[in-house]
Specification:
The complex is a heterodimer of chains A (about 260) and B (about 425). Chain A is α/β, with parallel strands linked by helices and about 260 residues long. Chain A contains nine helices and eight strands. Chain A has an eight-stranded mixed sheet with strand order 1-2-4-3-5-6-7-8, sandwiched between helices. Chain B starts with a strand and ends with a helix. Chain B is an alpha/beta fold and about 425 residues long. Classes of the chains: A alpha/beta (about 260), B alpha/beta (about 425).
Chain lengths: ~260, ~425
């Protein structure tokens, strides 16, 4: 992870929990909602976006930087409202929005329910669907050692994302990573199915759908199911040699596809 | 001292190569291994064994709840308990228990336990476990991040359903019912004794103490490995200003008794190796659903590992805070190690008395749960084990802790107020 410089950090209040917002770069705003595991540290993909845009990255409740915000969210409506408040407080309303995995599911919900909040949308392998004929893998019934390979083709990228930095609190760091898995489970247990497909037709923003061609968690064929349900203009790109968190495996390609779609 | 005879109801005919050919005894164990016509005989033998234990003089007979589990054939322990209520007269019936968060609405538990209490004449011990990850989150699909809050709320609902005299509305976070009014009501007032099976969670100890419930440590790994947990429990009781009444605590122990130690080894080795080798073979994928272990318990676990590492000590046996499926990964599977590690107590009546005395006094446990059928132990040997224990072990330990009141034991109707149970075959007795 060379050439990674640190973003500015601020916090917003979400249901009484201090929630981290990262900001870096200049130019038109673009938001990013992170995927499974969240972002315990800044990643190269965000630098690619920050080269030409103001990148704003709010944490989701319970994910790294999101404290225990998940603990007061019981229903899917609670979650969607919390994310909408985060979009507003982070200054992202009306901007372009990118989400990956868990975050992509909420980016899609936000664009569907509050069309004015999202100008253009990019979804990287969103959660929210389950097809019994092509079942998603269960991320919560895995040996811990198998998680990096389930999330990425190059498991080292996920390991590097999650590795404890020097000087971190050796007790709180692993708890924070476990909390991210819990927060994901709290929304999506047991199948990952929030019936997102029912809200997809409400999306009015032009939408780019990206999927790692080697996503072992959510089948890439789900991309077509999602594209067909969205009424607005869509474009689908399968990223070769990328896994579920394609932005970790292929930061340049994923960022370039997004910036081309929403120049 | 109380003696409770505990049946897990294992499927007794898992193949010899089960551990190498099959990933897990739990959650996704293959249906082809289950023969219902064999299970017919197993269930009936198991019920016979429980009734035999009651007749032999055990204070209670126990059953519990598991799902999709090859070593626990009781998805509904209440079915077993109701059958036992009709075929026994004096033994307490200990259901350990109903995993409260799995019942929708949880008033179902209040109703069924009240039924068992009525049928049995007030002999029910009501156990409320959270339930293992395998049972609750995987087999039953309950969200692990909501599980504990659901459990506590369901407990509050059951308790109110038992104790409030008027129909009430329950406006919970997870459960909303306009009309809660259970019929029947429990015989025992204000409610049957409540026991909480659990493990090394400080929160569970505190809650059990605050509610004045019995805490039961249902370990399969014997009393030597339970020392850390029970020490922690009693330290916490002291901190909370609770007395050291040993009846606050229950502990489960596998026991095999025979005329001599060698005979016990000869009789019980196969069944013990079946239990530890095949029954406790759980896929580590099911070890830790996120959110099942609270952050406070995770923190305590990491801190204790850090402390032990700093002191240059390794924890003996499975880590206190490890999940049950994780503990099962590192188990001893052969009889020599099973015995050396103290998972099972085997020996002559005097050997067993000595070891159980040590168990009871070191752990300070007054409610002793005995696993006397384990693995594929035959019904004949199970009854032999049970009878020998009742005749030659129990009397020598009976007076232990006699100075302490057991406030957590059922209060049944007086014998003269109880229904006369007809003989099993009325036509046979009429002749």
């Amino acid at each position: 992870m060379s050439s990674v410089s640190q973003p500015e950090t601020s916090t917003i209040d979400v249901n009484g929990f201090a929630t981290r917002v990262w900001r870096k770069g200049s130019g038109p705003r673009i938001g990013f909602l992170a995927g499974y595991g969240g972002l315990p540290r800044w990643i190269p993909f965000l630098d690619r976006l920050a080269a030409t845009r103001t990148v704003i990255v709010p944490s989701l409740p319970g994910f790294p930087g999101g404290d225990r915000g998940h603990s007061v969210l019981d229903t899917h409506l609670d979650w969607v409202l919390a994310v909408a408040a985060i979009i507003d407080k982070a200054g992202l309303a009306g901007s372009d929005l990118v989400g990956s995995s868990i975050g992509a599911s909420f980016a899609a919900e936000t664009a569907a329910i509050w069309p004015e909040k999202v100008k253009r949308l990019a979804l990287i392998a969103p959660f929210g669907l389950f097809d019994a004929d092509e079942p998603a893998t269960d991320p919560w019934a895995q040996k811990q050692d198998d998680i990096p390979g389930l999330m990425t083709v190059n498991a080292d990228t996920y390991k590097a994302l999650k590795a404890m930095p020097a000087g971190a609190n050796s007790i709180e760091w692993p708890i924070e990573q476990a909390r991210a898995a819990e927060a994901a489970a709290r929304i999506f247990w047991p199948l990952g199915n929030t019936r997102l497909e029912r809200r997809l037709p409400l999306i009015a923003a032009p939408t780019l759908i990206l999927w790692g061609g080697e996503d072992r968690l959510l089948p890439p064929s789900y991309a077509g199911k999602i594209a067909r349900r969205i009424a607005a203009r869509t474009e689908t790109r399968i990223i070769a040699a990328a896994g579920h968190l394609a932005e970790l495996d292929k930061p340049d390609e994923v960022a370039a596809a997004i910036l081309t779609f929403m120049p | 001292m109380k003696f409770l005879w505990f049946h897990l109801m294992p499927y007794k005919e898992l193949p010899d190569d089960f551990k190498t050919k099959h990933p897990s005894v739990w959650v996704d164990i293959h249906s082809s291994l289950f023969d219902p016509s064999r299970a017919h005989h197993m269930y009936n033998e198991f019920l016979d064994e429980l009734e035999f234990a009651a007749a032999a003089g055990f204070d209670a007979i126990c059953c519990n709840e598991h799902h999709s589990n090859g070593y626990g054939l009781m998805p509904s322990p209440n079915l077993i308990a109701s059958a036992l209520a009709r075929r026994t007269t004096d033994a307490a019936i200990c259901v350990l228990g109903n995993s409260l968060a799995l019942y929708n609405p949880p008033t179902r538990v209040a109703e069924e336990f009240a039924m068992i209490d009525c049928i049995s004449g007030g002999r029910l011990i009501a156990g409320f476990p959270v339930g293992t990850p395998m049972d609750t989150t995987y087999a039953y699909g309950t969200n692990p991040s909501h599980l504990r809050d659901r459990y506590y709320e369901a407990h509050d609902l059951v308790l109110r359903a038992w104790t409030e005299k008027d129909t009430f509305a329950f406006n919970g976070r997870y459960n909303q019912q306009r009309y809660v009014n259970i019929w029947p009501r429990p015989i025992q007032q204000p409610h049957p004794p409540i026991w909480i099976p659990g493990a090394g969670s400080v929160e569970t100890w505190r809650w059990a103490a605050e509610m004045d419930y019995v805490f039961c440590y249902l370990s399969y790994y014997g009393y030597k490995m339970a020392r850390n947990v029970m020490q922690g429990f009693w330290q916490e009781m002291a901190r909370l200003g609770k007395d050291r009444n040993p009846y606050r605590a229950g502990f489960a122990q596998v026991v095999g008794v025979a005329e001599s130690r060698q005979q016990a080894l000869d009789l019980y080795t196969d069944a013990a190796e079946y239990f530890y080798g095949r029954c406790l073979h759980v896929d580590p994928r099911f070890a830790g659903p996120p959110g099942y272990v609270t952050e406070a318990t995770q923190r305590a676990g990491i801190e204790s590992q850090v402390r032990l590492a700093a002191e240059g000590k390794a924890e003996t046996g499975p880590a206190t805070n490890a999940s049950s499926a994780t503990k099962m990964q590192s188990l001893a599977r052969d009889m020599k190690s099973i015995v050396e590690n103290g998972y099972v107590i085997v020996g002559s009546p005097d050997d067993v008395v000595e070891q159980l005395h040590e168990l009871a006094t070191t752990l300070n446990v007054g409610q002793l749960m005995l696993l006397m059928q384990f693995g594929n132990l035959s019904s004949e040997l199970t009854k032999y084990n049970t009878r020998l224990f009742a005749e030659r072990v129990m009397p020598k330990l009976r007076s232990l802790f006699a100075d302490w009141p057991n406030r957590w034991w059922p209060k049944p109707l007086a014998a003269r107020e109880r229904a006369q149970l007809p003989a099993f075959r009325p036509e046979a007795t009429a002749q």
